[in-house]
Design a protein that fits this description.
This protein is α+β, with helices and mostly antiparallel strands. The chain is built from four helices and 13 strands. The protein has one domain. The N terminus is likely disordered.
Length: 221
Amino acid sequence: MSIKIIGLSDEFHNKITVSGGSGTTTGGTTGGSEIDLGPNDISANPADFAGQVKVGWVVGGGVVVATNGTNGIICSMQDISTVDTSDGFVLTTTFQWRTATTDASGADSTTNGTANVAAMKAIDPTLAEFPAAKMVDEYSTDSYSDWYLPAKDELDYIYDFKFACETGQFFATFFSSFKLSYYWSSSQNGTTHAWRRRFSNGGQDDYGKTSKYCVRAVRSF
């Protein structure tokens, strides 16, 4: 059978194909299902498999959440966080979109997070004014350092795939790493607000930029 990833555009939509069987199988699936994980090598470059890449592959530093087989979006394996050991052990897991509720000219794209972050860097090259984007920009794993804060639609790809996998009992361990909270996108919506999405129920709206929410990194290929 096939599971359609709800909400993905025709451009990026792919299918997770599972075949009959019994017991627990590849990828942590249950109930007699097996998912095609491809090379299942997190350090593998998806460009080496052009035209073959599928949603669910663990490559390029994370999990492919949307693809047309050649291009797509990869999600990091965990939330972005920081640890301050200067005064004990302080773990920070939520960040402001911006330190002030002012306009970020050019950071309006709902489809292109790279363009949004470039607009932020044009305002502040250090991204100090944009803590959420800064944390992601500094993230590096498995030799990949080109991560960015996802645009509104790119964040939707992550949630839609999470929802489909949860209901289909796929990748339960990975997706349980998401907090039942809001996650920032890189897309502002007016001078004072930016788009966010709640990963407990899919709720989506815009909110004040100085509020602190969780952050997940993506990279495109």
